[in-house]
Amino acid sequence: MPLLVKICGIKTMAIMETALNAGADMVGLVFFAKSPRNVSLATACTLSGRTCGRAAVVALTVDPDDDFLQLVMRDLKPDLIQLHGRETPERVADIRQRFKVRVMKAVGVSARSDLADIPAYAAVSDMLLVDAKPPKDAAHPGGNGLAFDWDLVAGLDPGRPVMLSGGLDPDNVADAIRRTRLAGVDVSSGVESAPGIKDADKIKAFVAAARRAEAEVGYGAAFAAAG
Ligand SMILES: O=C(O)c1ccccc1NCC(=O)[C@H](O)[C@H](O)COP(=O)(O)O
């Protein structure tokens, strides 16, 4: 299966166009008021319209309530809801079933013990995202540009595709792909010039580096051999 590359926290048409032209498979729109990447639902709908099916649209939410999800599903109709809060496996299952939407649950990792929750989340999610566990005093539960020990998730296979995130950037993404061989990579801070300000050249460099590593590792070949 080809490597999935997600660019998260897109706020402008120009950057959406850059991510699509660079070859991103997934684009993330952040709904979290305290984030410098937060977008309104109206802006998200406009940005999403630009994709024309070239990339999957991911609505990033943090402990969303049903009223908000109803609006997101009615107006944005994302391909995937990313759950980046303290949602329990029961709540993840509830959202997936109630809204008939694919979900990607983010799991914070800083130690091997954090992987204990993964089977329960894999059972109720379409995809998982492993991210650095935020520091206790962090203002945001994600998008902090912090990396974790990738060896903890190397080859992780809970029966659902797993994306790697947390502190990735154009310089380290190839190493991360080689070491973990997960289904995809997700970046936000590492392709910015300042919090919330995406840098077009960094996005292009990130996707290019990820694609080179994908070819080197042989993602498609492994899939063909297995299939
Ligand atoms: O981006 C945010 O501001 C954010 C706010 C609240 C929850 C999650 C958030 N971001 C998550 C992501 O952008 C990515 O999925 C991932 O964590 C990558 O973050 P980064 O380390 O900045 O590359």
Short description:
With 227 residues, the protein is α/β, with parallel strands linked by helices. 35% of the residues lie in helices and 21% in strands.
Give structural notes.
The protein has one domain: TIM Barrel (Alpha-Beta Barrel), CATH 3.20.20. It has helices spanning 13-22, 41-49, 66-76, 89-99, 118-122, 173-180, 200-217, 219-226; strands at residues 4-8, 26-31, 56-61, 80-83, 102-109, 127-132, 162-165, 184-187, 192-194, 197-198. Helix 1 (13-22) runs parallel beside helix 7 (200-217), helix 2 runs parallel beside helix 3 and helix 6 runs parallel beside helix 7 (200-217). The protein is of the alpha/beta class and 227 residues long. Helix 1 links the parallel strand 1 (4-8) and strand 2 (26-31). The strands form 2 sheets. The chain has an 8-stranded parallel barrel with strand order 1-2-3-4-5-6-7-8, surrounded by 5 helices. Bound molecules: ligand LARABZUK. The site of ligand LARABZUK has 27 residues, from strand 2, strand 6 and strand 8. InterPro entries: Aldolase_TIM, PRAI_dom, RibuloseP-bd_barrel, TrpF_fam.
Question: Architecture, CATH level 2?
Answer: Alpha-Beta Barrel
**Overall body shape:** globular
Give the count of structural domains.
1
CATH C-level class: Alpha Beta
Task: Work out the helix count.
Answer: 8
- CATH topology label: TIM Barrel
SSE pattern, N- to C-terminal: EHEHEHEHEHEEHEEEHH
Q: What is the β-strand count?
A: 10
Mean pLDDT across residues: 95
- Poorly predicted spans: 223-227
Structural class: alpha/beta
Strand order of the largest sheet: 1-2-3-4-5-6-7-8
Give Rg in angstroms: 16 Å
Distance between the termini: 10 Å
Strand percentage: 15-25%
Are any ligands bound, and if so which? the ligand O=C(O)c1ccccc1NCC(=O)[C@H](O)[C@H](O)COP(=O)(O)O
The biggest sheet amounts to:
8 strands, parallel, barrel
Fourth-tier CATH superfamily name: Aldolase class I
Helical amount among residues, as a percent range? 25-40%
Domain N-(5'phosphoribosyl) anthranilate isomerase (PRAI): 5-208
Family: Belongs to the TrpF family.
Keywords: Amino-acid biosynthesis, Aromatic amino acid biosynthesis, Isomerase, Tryptophan biosynthesis
Pathway: Amino-acid biosynthesis; L-tryptophan biosynthesis; L-tryptophan from chorismate: step 3/5
